[in-house]
Amino acid sequence: MRATILLKNCSWVITMNPREPIIKGASIYVEDGIPSVVKDRVEADIVINGKGKAVLPGLINAHTHAPMSLFRGLAEDLPLERWLREKIWPLEAKLKPRDCYVGARLSILEMLKTGTVGFVDMYWFSREILKAATEAGIRALITYGMLDLGDAERRERSLKDAKEFIEYGRKLGEERVGVGLGPHAPYTCSREMLEAVRDLADKEKVPIHIHVAETRHEQAEFEKKYGMREVEYLAKIGFLGEDVSIAHGVWLTRREIRELAEYDVKVVHCPISNLKVAVGGIAPVVEMIKSGVSVALGTDGAASNNSLDMFETMKIAALLQKHHHWNPAILNATTVLSMTIHGGSRILGRDMRIDGEAKCDIVTLDLRRPHMTPVHSGETLINHMVYSSRGSDVREVIIDGQLVVYNGKVLTMVEEEVLKEAQDTAEDIIRR
């Protein structure tokens, strides 16, 4: 049984619970991973001073490639096609399993320190990422990266390995870390592979995570080859379902958005990486939300974003839609915060809120910072979370009832060791 935790005399609590969304001046008692708002004096194994802090459910990074933190800064200012073919793919060809473990640890360290309590990942050497997440105590959905480029032999090998990965993940018996399938994209996976992935997901009852409609060039070339757009194609072959989440979804028509809503497909918006590699458009986030599509936020990998800070991602996501629609009210702070917490947690199979009834991972933020002062009301506090907060404001992180970050220090990892090994490994990859 985990130790009980009391966050005592918190200045503000953002519950994300519609019944009582914001509470001023309360304590939070955590037992067995369930946080409750308490106003009476209670005893706990661990007591943390909450004065001058805001408490809220933890953030979810719903799309990333954790090991790619080792490539941070190596492939800058290039179009996506050149970025992949000239820089990233040659580097990935050098990767060894241990590299992905080291890179995943670096990303997880950054995410924990900036208030991310869970992430969705797609990459190679998935067992190593799974191992890193399990050791660090973070919540995660690790999907097995797959593509066949029309090669039947590669397809069969990939499907066999994916099935073994699912069995491996289940044997670990770690509730916080789930496994799934990660076919790269409709343009890198044959119809045979996509249909086989769908069949395997149905049989094993695991989710699917896939890149869709990221760039205008990708969508145009796909339509030229198949005579239809990517979402239409995936619907036609029976691929879509409520267990599917797609990353990016930038180049979507209204018809495709309606199809995504019809199949209850989740979409992960990655505003910073989309801006950085200049995908040529703005994801129709507002249109998706209006159509009933559940939208989450992600950073993408650190090689195409450079940061895994979800507070930064929230701010850019909000500003991008305001600018695009010429309307400062089009996407407010409450909606963006909900995308990051509720949108992401739905992909992980839970819906986090502080209600005293269900498990919820929580973080605390230091409000005693110049850029966080003043707090006029609960409404302005929500605004601060999106427009003012930074990952460096995070002081505590509690995941599944375990204190993982205390006073800004990650307790489940030795930071100096993680940083040194990441630096040494990155240099070694370049030398190979």
Comma- or semicolon-separated keywords:
single chain; 432 residues; alpha/beta; Urease, subunit C, domain 1; TIM Barrel; 9-stranded mixed beta sheet; 4-stranded parallel beta sheet; globular
Give your account of this protein's structure.
The chain has 432 residues and is of the alpha/beta class. The chain has two domains: 5-57 and 360-408, Urease, subunit C, domain 1 (Roll), CATH 2.30.40; 59-347, TIM Barrel (Alpha-Beta Barrel), CATH 3.20.20. The protein is built from 14 helices and 17 strands. The protein has helices spanning 80-92, 97-113, 126-136, 152-172, 191-204, 216-226, 230-236, 254-262, 271-276, 285-290, 310-325, 333-347, 378-387, 415-431, and strands at 5-14, 22-31, 34-38, 46-49, 53-57, 59-64, 116-123, 139-146, 177-183, 208-212, 244-248, 266-269, 295-297, 362-366, 394-399, 402-406, 409-410. Strands 1, 2, 3, 4, 5, 14, 15, 16 and 17 form a nine-stranded mixed sheet that branches. A hairpin with a 2-residue loop joins β15 and β16 (402-406). The radius of gyration is 21 Å and the shape is globular.
Short description:
This protein is of the alpha/beta class. It has helices at residues 80-92, 97-113, 126-136, 152-172, 191-204, 216-226, 230-236, 254-262, 271-276, 285-290, 310-325, 333-347, 378-387, 415-431; strands at residues 5-14, 22-31, 34-38, 46-49, 53-57, 59-64, 116-123, 139-146, 177-183, 208-212, 244-248, 266-269, 295-297, 362-366, 394-399, 402-406, 409-410.
